[in-house]
Amino acid sequence: MRRLTWFNATSLTLGFAFLYLPMLILIVYSFNESKLVTVWAGFSTKWYGTLVQNEAFLDAAVVTLKVAVTSSTIATVLGTMAALVLVRAGRFPGRTLFSGMIYAPLVMPEVITGLSLLLLFIGIGLDRGILTIILAHTTFSMAFVAVVVSSRLMSFDRSLEEAALDLGCSAFDAFRLVTLPIIAPAVISGWLLAFTLSLDDLVIASFTAGPSATTLPIKIWSSIRLGVSPEINALSTIMIGIVAVGVITASLVTKRASLRQQAEERAAAQQV
Amino acid sequence: MGQTVFEPWNDPDEKPLIQFKNVTKRFGDFTAIDNQTFDIYEKEFFALLGPSGCGKTTMMRMLAGFEAPTEGTILLGGQDIAPIPPNKRAVNMMFQSYALFPHLSVWDNIAFGLKRDRMSKDAIAARVEEMLTLTRLTQFARRKPHQISGGQRQRVALARSLAKAPKLLLLDEPMGALDAKLRQATQFELMDIQEKTGTTFVIVTHDQEEAMTVASRVAVMDEGRIVQADTPARIYENPSTTYVADFIGDVTIITGRASPAGEGYEVHYAEAAAPIYSAFDIDLAEGETCHLALRPEKVSITAERPADRRNAVQGTIIDIAYLGNLSTYHVEIEGGQMVKAQAANTRRLSRRDFTWEDTVWLSWTDTAAVLLRE
Asked: Does the model's ipTM exceed the 0.85 cut?
């Protein structure tokens, strides 16, 4: 083992402090007895209690989840289809333009995406509410799904599909029975990416949300303007907790699966 | 021996299973297959042999249905297959990469094609068991492709493509991913399975030894054309061009001018040297340029001039390639022409008769050198 030099130790400490100190402060103060955020007055979990009774927050949370699940699901279907065309269609006139346009929402400032969608919805007379947020989120997260899935498809062995056709599959069956199960991990991570993007989006949601539906980020943002309350800290702590559990579980599952696969491949190589 | 020789291509009553009729395939400006007409018969083990880019894979992909011919027709059992998509053809293919479905077990991989035919569960199970037994995979049925070795994967791919009992099985470089020892064993296994199932096999390979071992007929391809299609023995002993002679095995090509002499021709290859006699009767004019293809193992190497042979030349050993059982001597004869001669190492290496810079006599029989026009 190499010893940690003082320089490395300092960089490590500073780096992690930079990343996690703000979150740590937030978590600590969510257990504060006092209503004043900056004054420590002893340990308490009462803010978690009041949070559960706050209907406005709960409603916003439900809306956020509905939007995230629906928009990420639609985005995954559309994004996967776009990726298939992008990787498979070969050369056709305007291919470069098409692929460029798929990726454009990735770099487009959110304010512009939000504004243009707002203008569209007003133009076609669509009342702003949960539907418009779903549409808006689908629009931008679809591009992310397309990127994730197309990078997987590029390394996909086409002969697998040809083998399925050769063995009597129709083109659709070949996709359903062979391609989709193999690229499933990429499709799932595309879905998760779309889901988290939708979950924490503030800018586009605030352009497209209406009085009938508010998402959690919008709710938090608007209540901050009235002053930071320990309730918000408690809510944020719960969100951090959910995300942390999700990420850790996912990485543990992937790691165990890859370790098992390695062990099995080693065992297979030993027998002829 | 009451056994009849398997040579359906010499039997005018025999109906070919596959007929290529003036088939041309172009990709843009590039002509992959150039106006080819040939037949493949039932129960044949037909090898398409050639360097990469010669069009052999295109030929196979047209049979499988992944490519359509630009011109001409391909008939399978007398029926034009152009309008039939790959999933409706009685043709199966074993892919070079094996293309095993990684998310399915060995059993499900083999059952995959059968399930598409809507066979009953029992019939599928029976057929899969039969295939597992044929390829000696019964104990690995529940494993996934990544849990078995390369040789086993190759057998799964073979079992999967044979499960539907196709009229024609296509094999794309089936042993490309195996090491040399395993490859040899697998070649014999493949011949055995071909014989047991009675399926027509078409194999694509760039390995001439593999083609010679397994095939009933070998088609040597070059730049989109079949140069010669014949039995391995005839390809080796009677190549039709210097390309075929050079592609199959080791050979010395001597170029010279022909002059008729007796039953065959004398070939003058160098100013001062005596001509080489070849008793091959092809139609050549006096003074026409021709080539002699001489296999190294047909050339004897001796210290003295042998009295009984018409073809004997003197030369100097420039190089010796020691192959263990054999040694190949590179001998420079008059006119700077290099001739390869092979001798079995019947004695230990330290007792070898000839070494570098030795002057030796090379000789061969009247029929050893094959006379070729091109």
From this structure: no
